[in-house]
Amino acid sequence: MSHIPDVQANYKGLQNLARHLRTESLLLLSIQKSGINFEKNLPGGIVYSQIIEELEDRIDYRTRKKSYFFKKDGEIIAQ
């Protein structure tokens, strides 16, 4: 949803998602600033990390590589 700037389109997307959730299910949403490195501690000793690398910066566009990790005890368990 971070790439959909239209509020109504985001609302519709969440409505569509909600139709597929089971009763009593849990949906986890996170709001974070884009374009920055970010870390969040999760239950069970798991750490979620977002790492942004600037690859190229020009007047007309910026190229970034975004990497997302789940770590436990310092080891990557999902990427």
Set out the fold topology.
Layout: H1 7-19, E1 38-42, E2 46-57, E3 62-72, E4 75-78
Antiparallel strand pairs: 1-2, 2-3, 3-4
Would you give an account of this structure?
The chain is of the alpha+beta class and 79 residues long. It has a four-stranded antiparallel beta sheet, with no helix packed on it. The chain has one helix at 7-19; strands spanning 38-42, 46-57, 62-72, 75-78. It has one domain. 16% of the residues lie in helices and 41% in strands. The longest helix is centred in the first third of the chain and has 13 residues, at 7-19. Strand 2 and strand 3 form a beta hairpin. The chain has one helix and four strands, in the order αββββ.
Please give a handful of descriptors for the protein shown.
79 residues, 4-stranded antiparallel β-sheet, 41% strand, 16% helix, alpha+beta, single chain, 4 strands
Order of helices and strands: HEEEE
- Low-confidence runs: none
Quote the average pLDDT. Answer: 81
Strand content: 35-45%
Distance between the first and last residues' Cα: 19 Å
| Strand neighbour order, sheet with most strands | 1-2-3-4
How many structural domains are formed by the residues? 1
Structural class: alpha+beta
Distinct helical segment count = 1
Q: Major β-sheet, in short?
A: 4 strands, antiparallel
Global geometry: flat
Question: Percent helix among the residues?
Answer: 10-25%
- Count the E strands: 4
| Rg measurement, Å | 16 Å
